[in-house]
Amino acid sequence: MEAIWNWIQVNVLPWIKPPKTIQVIDIIQIALIAFFVYRMILWLKDTRAYNLMKGIVVIIVFVIIVNILHMEILAWLIQNVTVVAITAIIVIFQPELRRVLEQVGHKNVFSNLFFANRSERQNTYFTDKTINEIVRATFNMAEAKTGALIVMEMEVQLKEFEETGIPIDSAITSQLMENIFEHNTPLHDGAVLVRRDRIVAATCYLPLSENTTLSKNLGTRHRAGVGVSEISDCLTIIVSEETGKVSYAREGRLTTGVNLSDLRELLHQLQAAGRQPKFVRKEIS
User: Fold this and answer.
1) Is 173 helix (H, G, I), strand (E, B) or coil?
2) Average pLDDT of the chain?
């Protein structure tokens, strides 16, 4: 406790100045700072950077503890890797940073700033009709051994992958889904991205998983499905072209040999609660 109090006296108390008369401009500045911080948090919550921010908070707490306990070696190490870490963050999250700058330059920036995500939040997940259409299309394609890769977006937006595909923006029907993945059609290669009750894009390119524990028998389609689930909270449904088996990937975990009731139950769990579902675990084969 003495070490903590000494640290507070040296690093915190000097920043605390005697109160002065609060003027109107001070209230305006505080309100603006609070508003922009709030909007930034909302933006981060819908991107992969949200998990990064949570990690940064943990690191900041760790750095404070290191300074309080006078761990000189760790403090020196943290100080020397900070610049490299900041540079790495900028490189890794370049798509998100670019999108923010594009939005700032958009003509509707003020309306987007004040009312962003309001309509989207009213309907975060998909309806029963969407579930029925996706389940029907998935097992129709499985029966015909038509390869498919369906990415269902949840809280974390996948706009960077949407931009790699061809925009569709269509209501979800089993006939349309099956036609997209029909072999030798223009849109069959790549993934279909589903956002709530709409197919937003097809032929999307996804990152491949580098998980070495995955079976060597799995192809590019399965590795892409697992890869995108490792970096977001999406649900990826995969139909094998070789075996006709249905699998799904969630949080970097692949579940194979899924039957119709398994998939329907999982989708209803996601729809109802908006939280992590209880996984139906099966052996990976």
Assistant:
1) coil
2) 79
